[in-house]
Amino acid sequence: MIDLFCAPGGLTLGFEMAGFRSLAGVDMDKDGMKTYAANFPHARAITADVTELESAKLMKIAGIKRGEIDLIIGGPPCQGFSNIGRVKIASLVREGIWKLSTARPRFIDDPRNVLYREFVRIVHDLRPKFFVMENVPGMRSYRNGEIVGQIVADFDKIGYRTQARVLNAVNYGVPQRRKRIFFIGTRLEGTGIPWPEPQNYDHETAGPTLEAFLDSDTGTGRNPPVTVWDAIGDLPDPVPGKPGLADRPLKYDKPPFSEYQEWARENSEMVHNHITRQHNERDVKVFSTMKEGTWWRDLPEDIKKLYGYRDDIFHDKMKRLCRKEPSWTVVAHLYKDGYMYIHPTQARSITVREAARLQSFPDVFIFRGSRTAQFKQVGNAVPPLMARAVAAAVRSVLEKRY
Prior knowledge:
Layout: E1 2-4, H1 10-17, E2 24-27, H2 30-39, E3 44-47, H3 55-62, E4 71-74, H4 83-94, H5 114-126, E5 130-135, H6 146-157, E6 161-168, E7 179-186, H7 203-206, H8 210-215, H9 228-232, H10 259-264, H11 281-289, H12 301-304, H13 352-358, H14 371-380, H15 384-401
Parallel strand pairs: 1-2, 1-4, 2-3, 4-5
Antiparallel strand pairs: 5-7, 6-7
Helix pairs in contact: 1-15
């Protein structure tokens, strides 16, 4: 396989867990590619702008010819599906700034979706047997699925039967409620589109009763979801943060007490990327007063006045994780503001390693770059266990066919 927009390697890791072999990964994020290269030394780590990468050169680097590769995966950033975005497009077209034949361009024609077009281009040129593309689920709700229909049509034009489905990471062993839309396409005749069945049952995302869940088309997973404490409760106390300190390995000082922790610690001798942010006395005091699962909106008024944030804008400014529940979605904004991910028992925000555990990265996966860059990489990544479930479904079809 080849992974486009790969940094730091969440999709690659999940697909390799399922038995695929990465030949190359492409991304222009320099720090993210340092992480990718360190964790996938057998793959060619190509730090480049995909828009400037010729397909012929990519095939030469990967050592393949057209039609030989099994799979291309990736998550190209797509911005042109929001209501605000469409209004802006219409305005720019009327003003003659964007030269388009219509103020309602197809998804592939939206100038901001140039990276998506490059993904389509490379799939067309390399002719993999399958492709898997993931993105934010919001595009499904825009104009009754118009965007999803356009994407499916774009791939149909280059010879790929394609389906889209929104999956939730919590149903695939990830200790986090995180929805993503996946597009799976194939050029193989007589082959169906494979989808993974959920392994875990989560009341909040699957419905009020187990019976309703099992009667739906979401699968037959009966295992309870992995919780925050299942994920991070065995980690040692972190290293106090200092400017410029990006990593200082620690020894494990507690035995694992969940299957997830045992899995996360496999082949790992030390804990990396486990350094705290620096917090002022005010923050530490406020964190200490918050109960697990509470938000900014739940704080008393006298504490809110210490900050001066508006409730209508910053209602989720502070959120303390709950040990007994999966985490809420870990986002890339974590690198700027960690207040949405306050540790459930300690008066601090979570570390990169704790965020990585919530994203289902095992401890042997070490992040490179500054601590800020590491947080951004973790938040941008596809949860590897979610990717593994998708990968296993695709592999099952390829194994039957070849």
